[in-house]
Amino acid sequence: MDTFKVAAALLILTVGAASAAVTRTIVVTVLPFDIIDSNPCSGEPVQYSGTLHEELTELFDDAGGVHSKFMLRIQQMRAVGLQTGTTFIVHSSTHVNSNSQDADGPLSISSQFHFIDPGQGSDFTVFTLFHTTVNANGEVTAEAQNFRAECK
Question: Which helix (H) or strand (E) holds 125?
């Protein structure tokens, strides 16, 4: 009987917690890419290819707030110098912050891509930052973008 009471109490707590906030996945996207751009440090043309995997999840709280989580992952990325044949090893990370009431509020996305040259040591890192603020009418009221590269 005590086991039943504990199980019932856990069930009530679980149901209560589930009704406090609802999480659902909104969008999952997988996009292959293949582009040519230059190495920002040497100017050499580099072919970048791989698969971009994006997932957007939103949490709606009891106060009407919307808390978004955006996951961005690049899989099987390859970067090859078209003149030297250098194959770069690529590490990336992306962070997204968004908290709002209804559809308004700020959104910040920062990414870092580290390109490692295992031979010549011409490593470089690309940093990106996107920031957008949207008002209650869904209009963008502020927007900023920043790109920079560091040569190692």
Answer: strand 124-134
User: Cα Rg for the chain, rounded, in angstroms?
Assistant: 22
Give Cα 76 distance to the centre of its chain: 16
Handedness of CA 28, 32, 35, 37 (dihedral sign): positive
DSSP 86: P
CA-wise closest residue to 32 among 10, 58, 54: 54
80 CB-contact burial (10 Å; exposed 0-12 / middle 13-18 / buried 19+): middle
Per-residue pLDDT tens for 60-103? 777 777 777 777 778 888 899 999 999 998 888 777 766 665 55
What whole-number distance in Å separates Cα of residue 98 and Cα of residue 144? 15
- pTM above threshold 0.70: no
Residue 42 class from Cβ within 10 Å (0-12 exposed, 13-18 middle, 19+ buried)? middle
Apex 116 CA angle, 114 and 120, nearest 5? 145
In angstroms, the CA 111 to CA 113 distance is 7
Q: Pick the closest to residue 111 from 39, 67, 54 (CA basis).
A: 54
CA distance 124 to 116: 7
